[in-house]
Design a protein that fits this description.
The structure is a single chain. With 121 residues, the protein is mainly alpha-helical. It has a domain of 66 residues. The chain contains two helices and no strands. The longest helix is centred in the middle third of the chain and has 26 residues.
């Protein structure tokens, strides 16, 4: 894989006191939309209409990004199910029944004719 050399940005590339340009303010709007979808406990208390400088934009984006990460970590933690408890080994038992005459309408004791011994006089 080829290594691409990227020059260092000039020292005046980021000036926290410089007024934010349209691109940065657009990113603030997108981050604000993402923040509105978060549960209340993760939202920042930063008033986005008061953001005017690059430093304020950077701070807001940092805060919202951290809040989104916290929300995802907490949600993942809630989705994790505890491991099933180890059960004691189960003892396998085999049961054997004695063989008996098959039951059915022809094999009932009531239906069988029994021979009666003749009476002796």
């Amino acid at each position: 894989m080829a290594i691409i050399q990227v020059p260092r940005p000039p020292k005046d590339a980021m000036n926290p006191n410089r007024p934010a340009n349209a691109l940065l303010l657009s990113q603030v709007e997108h981050m604000h939309e993402a923040e509105k979808r978060l549960p209340l406990r993760y939202r920042t208390d930063i008033y986005v209409n008061a953001i005017k400088t690059e430093g304020e934009v950077a701070n807001y984006i940092r805060e919202v990004t951290a809040a989104i990460h916290r929300a995802h970590v907490d949600a993942a933690r809630q989705r994790v199910r505890p491991a099933p408890k180890k059960r004691a080994p189960v003892l396998q038992i085999a049961a054997v029944a004695e063989e008996s005459a098959p039951k059915g309408p022809n094999n009932n004791a009531k239906n069988k004719k029994t021979k009666v011994a003749p009476k002796k006089k």
